[in-house]
Amino acid sequence: MKARVIYVKGHELSEACMRKTVDSLVKYEWDYEVVEGVTPNTLDEDEFPWKDLPNGRLASMKNHKNPEEKRKYRTKKSCLFNNLKFAQDVIEKNESMIFLEHDVVVTSPPPKDTGVEYFCFLNIDGAFKKPNVLANYPHLVDWYKSHSHGLGIQDFPSNYPLRYNKENDWKGQSITPGLSGYILTVKGAKMLLDKVEKYGIEQGDFTFNNRVIPMQYIYPSPIKFQKINPNLSHKL
Description:
The protein is α/β, with parallel strands linked by helices. Helices cover 36% and strands 17% of the residues. It has helices spanning 12-27, 57-62, 67-93, 124-127, 138-146, 186-199, 204-207, 232-235, and strands at residues 2-7, 31-36, 97-101, 104-106, 119-121, 152-155, 181-184, 215-219, 223-225. The longest helix is centred in the middle third of the chain and has 27 residues, at 67-93.
């Protein structure tokens, strides 16, 4: 499988993180490509001209009275578009691929997609540890530490606590703990695009939920976060 590293061209910290990611990919002999990500300045909303998900977080940003929240609308939409464009390329290449954000490093040889049906998260070990923001929520950290993780690819369990909480069709669904790294199959890419067109545009990590696409994860994780998190989904 080819891995795609997304980064922000011209952003010094993003480019520095991306180089660390690439160094680790070379070390562990991953097949990879580096792709410039969509930003608010390059966002073309006509690429996916779909409505915003009603009562979603993204829709609330667009209509927010606070200028800072309103500004985040195009930033968060750009992040989602990176994932939707990736899904298009998975379909075009007709093979599973790996999506990696610029602030991770790989820690082992590339995983096999055997057993991945649609979507497989690759960073469950780092999702509930600092510098990731989810480490600030004790109930999430407790679940990760107490859950008996089997080896290999597995479904997100019924007691997984990170849930979508907005008042719409997705409420109560398990959501991925970020999009730092994942495998997407061709079947998964088709389902993702179909469901987003059906339901609407929402923040990226909220979009990957069990109502949109069945979710799996791999344990132990083949990637981890770098020590510095650029957190550009809030800052661009």
